[in-house]
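Hi support team,

I submitted a single chain yesterday and got back a structure, but I'm not sure I'm reading the token output correctly. Could someone confirm the output below corresponds to the sequence I sent? I've pasted both exactly as they appear in my results page.

Thanks,
R.
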Amino acid sequence: MQWFKRIFGKEDKFFDLLEAGAEEAKTSVNLLARYLQALAAGGPQPNLDDFVQTRRKEKRIRYGMQEELSKTFVTPLEREDIEALSFALYRIPKAIEKIVERLSIYPGRVPHTAFQRQTELLNLACEAVVFMVKQLRRGTHIEKIREANDRLQYAEGEADKVMLGLLKDLYHGPYEPKELVILQELYEMVEQTVDRCRNAGNIVVQIVLKYS
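Hi R., thanks for writing in. Yes, this is the structure output for that exact sequence:
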């Protein structure tokens, strides 16, 4: 990718927007962890404004990307790849906002321990995505991307195992039918957010392979 970077070195605005999108996704994951900690502490209901603002900022980044694509003839990566990655990053904070909205109206006791391991894996996955996106600007060797993608795939695989364990606890635990359905959906929403990180990482891998 080095020759590609030299030719289009002035097109850093696209990399800036992609990196900003990845960072906002990571911010939303950090906010989710802090939200769960606040719930576990038993204090007042945490404010949801931070999640709304993060998702709105991600949306502005995405619209900014679409605007740049519409008025720029030459781009440092193929337009379809830029659009696909931008959309994949946008979907991460959007998913987390929905998780928090559901948690905020859940009338039962939130099983913080169960969500903690899921959130740790989500954080690991999102950190890998941020690293991978930032490597695009540098025209990195595929080895660095593969190492980061291995971490991402590990997080996704572990999230599947954790999900299975959580479902087992639900099915064999003393839960009311309504509570079981709600918690299962919440667990699945977190696991699906890890999948969204994996999808973003897969797009980065495809881009790097294309230009390596």
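A quick pointer for reading it: Residues 3-9 have pLDDT under 50 and may be disordered. Let us know if anything else looks off.

Best,
Support desk
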